[in-house]
Fold this protein.
Amino acid sequence: MKAELSRSMNRLSKDSFGPPYFLSYRLVLQTSLELSAAYGELTSESDDSFRSLYVEARVGDKSLDNTDLAFQGWHSAAAMEPGVLRQQLWALTDKAYKAALAGFLEKKAKRATEFVPDVLDDFSVEPPVVSAAPGAPEAADRAKLTALVKSLSAIWKRFPFVNESSASVQWRPGRRLLVTSEGTKLASEASAISGTLRVSAMSRASDGIRVDVHDSWAFRSAADLPPLAELEARVAAIGADLGEAIKAPLQPPMAAPAILDQEFTGVLFHEALGHKLEGQRQRDPAQSQVFKDLIGKEIIPTFLSLHDDPTMRMFRGRPLSGHYEFDSEGVAARRVPLVERGILRNFLMSRWPVKGFLTSNGHGRADPYHHPTGRMANLIVGAEKTISRTELEKQFLERIRKAGKPYGFHLIGAFGGENPNSRDSAQTLEVRPRLIYRVDAKTGARTMVRGVKLVGTPLVFLNRIVAAADDSTLANEFVCGAESGYVPVSQISPSVLVSEVELQRLPEDRSVPPILPPPYHDKN
C-alpha cells in the first residue's frame, strides 16, 4: 500500500495538474461466522471473509478542493497477493484522481455563482499517526456458539402463540490498515466488538396486528456474555412479554407524562440530538442545522449534559461497541463534551472544518465503503441531582394527576428511531418503544398497551425532561446508519421523567393469524 501510494504521489499528473495534495488508502479485512437456529436446531450457518479497499484523492489544496458532504472515494474488493493488490490500488487511484480533477473544476465553476456565507477550508491539518495495534483476534468457538443458539432458540417451543422465532449469533473480527500521503501508517482492529447475539420472536394479536419482541448482546469474547441460565431466563421473560402484548389493548393517540427507560432515553438523545450535532451538518445548507448557531446557548435542561467518548473501553465490566483508538481518518479518538449543563459546547468533528471548529476531534467514522464524516461513538447522557427510581415514580404519578390525565406511560426499550436531517423535511422525531405500559393516575397499576410510537420535535421534546434517575445503564448492541455508512455505537443513559409525551398510531401490519396451532402444541 505504501509503495503504490508513493509511486502515485511522485508521478500522477494530468494537463496542468500535479499529484493529489492528499491521497489515502484504507484496507479492511474481515472474517464472518453467522449461525441461526429455530426451536433448538440450526437453520443456517455461513463462513465468509471479505477484503475491501477504499481510495480517497484530493486535488487543489486544503482551502479549496474537490470534496463536499456528498463526496465519496472509490472502493473495490481486494486481493492479498502484493502484486495484485498494487494493481487494484493503481486502478482505484486512477479513477479517484480523475474524478477529483472533474469535481474540483466543477466546484470552482460553481463558486462563480454560488453565495458561500462562511468561507472555510475543505480539510483540516492533523498530525500523522504511526501505530500498529496487536492483531490476531480471538478465534470463535464454533461448537460453543452453536450450542448456545440451539439452547436459546429451543425456549420458544414453550410458547404456542409464537409464529416465528430465532436465535442467532454473528462473529466478525477484522483488521483495518490505513496509509496516507501525510505519513499516517495505521493498523488497528476494524471494530472493538466482534460478536452479536440476538433472540427474537413475533406473533399476531387477535386483530391481526403484528407484535415483535427481541433482545441482543454485544460481546468481545464469549466471557462477556451472561451465564447460560441468565440468557435462558431472559428469553423466557421476553416470551412472556410477547404473550402479554398480543392480548394488550390498542392505545389511542394521547399526550401525557411518561417515564422513559434507559435504553429508550439513549435512543432518544441519539436521534434528537446526536445526529444534529454531527459537524458536517452545520456546514451544508441542505441540512436542518437546528443547532448551528446555538453554541454557548442553552438547548436542553441545565441538569443534563451530553458527551461522546470513543476512548471509553468498558462500562461496569462490559466492553463498549463504540470504542476505538483512532478514527477512520487516522485521528486519535478523544472525549468530546457536546452539552455541559444544558449549554451547547461542541460538535462531532471529522477533518471537514465548520465555523468555529477548524480541526477534527477524532470522530471521523465510516464503514469500509464510505467517506468518513463526524459520527457518534459512545454517547453518554449525564445528569446532576439525580433521584432514586422510587422518587422518579412518585414524581411521575404527581405529574399525571396535576395534568388531569387518567394515566401516564412507561416506555421501555426501543426498536429504533428516526429524525430527518435534511432541511426540506419536517424535523419530526419518532421513536418506537419495544414495550408500553399505561400507568393509572390513582393506583399506579400498570397495563400493557400497543400500537403507538412517540413523536415530537427535538427543541421542544428534550426540554420537557424534568428529572433523571440514578440508574444509568449501557445499551450496547446498536449499529447507526448515516451518509458514511453503518458504524457500531453505544449509549449510556438514565431513566428520565418527561412532563408530556405525544403518542401516535403506528402503521398497521395486519394479517390473519395462523389457522392451525403449531405442531408442538397441537393435541388433536
Notes: The mean pLDDT is 94. The longest helix spans residues 82-110.
